[in-house]
Amino acid sequence: MKRKFFIMAFAALLSFGAFCEEMAIAFFDPILVYCTPDEKNWIPTVVNNALVSQINRYSDLLTFDSATLATTLEQIKKSEDAAYDERMIIEAGKLINANYLCYIKVIKISRLFNVYFNIINATTGVPVATYEEDCTMEDLYKGGKDSVVNKAVLKMLEEDMGGVHSAKSIESFKKTMAWKSSGKGVTERDNDFRVAFLPPVLINCDDVWMRELLPGRLANAFFSYSKITPLDQGVEKGAIEKIKMSESGIYDEATITEAGKLVSAPYYCYAAITKAKGDIYQAYFNLITTKTGKPVAIYHVSCSADWIRGIKGFNVVGLAVHTMLTEDLGGEYNNESTEEFGKILQKQLKTKDISSAQEKSSQKYTVYEDKVYVPPKERAGAQKSQTSGNSNGGGTNDFKKRLGL
Predict the structure, then answer these.
(1) How many CB atoms lie within 10 A of CB 20?
(2) Nearest-angstrom CA–CA distance, 267 and 192
(3) Which one of 67, 213, 361, 386 is at 20 to 30 Å from 188 when CA atoms are compared?
(4) C-alpha closest to that of 60 among 187, 161, 176, 186
(5) Do 159 and 265 meet the contact criterion of CB atoms below 8 Å apart?
(6) Residue 78: which residues within 8 A CB-CB, separation 6 or more?
(7) What is the rounded distance in angstroms from the CA atom of residue 61 to the CA atom of residue 44?
């Protein structure tokens, strides 16, 4: 009897140990880009302390041993001479016994900060929860309902992680912050819609902040408003470096296409930003199939740098993602969140400055297999041609030929 009790107790202890290990989360210092020395002194301490405190307080996740984490990072630095970035953090996460890893990326753009929160599966390197926001310096250290950290914690635990790891105390968290329940369920991810997000190609411009900002913003918009399953960010960067080392080293569309074919995802996404004149930019957002290297969805717009930065509550990336999900992909990968996303964008487009910019923007374009851009008006004309030509049997083929199908 005692032996049986001992075995049962030991099994229970093992189960509890496995449960605890599964619930462990490792917190990494923020990645800071273009921040001043003074900001690099206080942002890591203030923002990370708030993040760790709130997740510890309002979830069932256990904090991973920080000493082991620091040792792992040092080992990677010595062996690879790696920069402290997303790839290094993900590699470290794969070496430790935590189930999740969490980090923040802060990019300073003019007087604003783009803050990107990530909770990632430590085994696979794939994001399971994200939150992204543009904010002021005060938003980084303020408390209460306006705190960017508090908003991130609530969104990641309640929505992205679906309450699986959130304790009942998260209800008191919402009451304290005067928030209402979102009412959203867990988004069911689609493994057939895994996307690698590659840095943008910059043409005739030296706004290097774009290269840091756009991949995270694209990933967050797709993740938040569709069924996307993001790819391990370390794999993406590794593919690009492999191409650069083996070929000319020039980072352009050809390099991205070759890198996209190396990653284990059906799709890869990138932007090409061209500075035309003054403060006018041409932005191309492309979603491409890894198998063929041909675009399946694209969004093209003329815009200002402020649209790309996301100043005044609007960013052109959001409109690009919404367009690709609802129009070019025919709604195949969107969900109820995509409709909510559209309502948010519609409110933003009603402001005076945005409306004025929208009127001057170029038309939305769709790309077909021969990479010929067909404006909506021409598409409408081609469709009429198809309808009128169906009677003699030649209209359909002529229509497909015009569209490159």
Answers:
(1) 12
(2) 9
(3) 213
(4) 161
(5) no
(6) none
(7) 21
Give mean pLDDT, residues 244-265. 77
Beta-carbon contacts of 298 under 8 Å, excluding residues fewer than 6 positions away, are 284, 285, 286, 287, 324, 328, 365, 366, 367, 373
Digit-coded pLDDT (tens) for 27-85: 999 999 999 999 999 999 999 999 999 998 888 888 998 888 888 888 888 877 778 88
Token output for 348: 């933003």
- Give the residue from 217, 174, 191 showing the smallest Cα distance to 308: 217
Cα gap 13→248, rounded to integer Å: 56
Q: 303-319, pLDDT tens digit by residue?
A: 788 778 876 556 788 88
Residue type, 208: V
> Which residues have a Cβ under 8 Å from the Cβ of 343 and sit 6 or more positions away?
none
Question: Which residues touch 356 (CB under 8 Å, ≥6 apart)?
Answer: none
Q: Would you call 113 exposed, middle or buried from its count of C-beta atoms within 10 A (0-12, 13-18, 19+)? A: buried
Extract the tokens encoding 159: 């929505």
Listed range (126-135, 332-341, 384-393, 396-405) with the worst mean pLDDT: 396-405
- Please answer whether residues 150 and 174 qualify as being in contact, where contact means their C-beta atoms are separated by less than 8 angstroms: no
Cα–Cα distance, 372 to 176 (Å, whole number): 54
Mean model confidence pLDDT for the chain: 76
DSSP string, 130-154: EEEEEE-HHHHH--GGG-HHHHHHH
**Helix 253-262 × helix 233-246 angle, to 10°:** 120
Q: Regarding beta strands 62-63 and 31-33, do their DSSP bridges make them parallel or antiparallel, or are they unpaired?
A: unpaired
| Residue at 328: amino acid letter | D
Is residue 180 predicted with pLDDT exceeding 50?
yes
**Tokens at residue 65, please?**
């041993």
What ranges in 179-264 are assigned the alpha helix state H?
209-225, 233-246, 253-262
- pTM here? 0.74
The residue type found at 93 is G
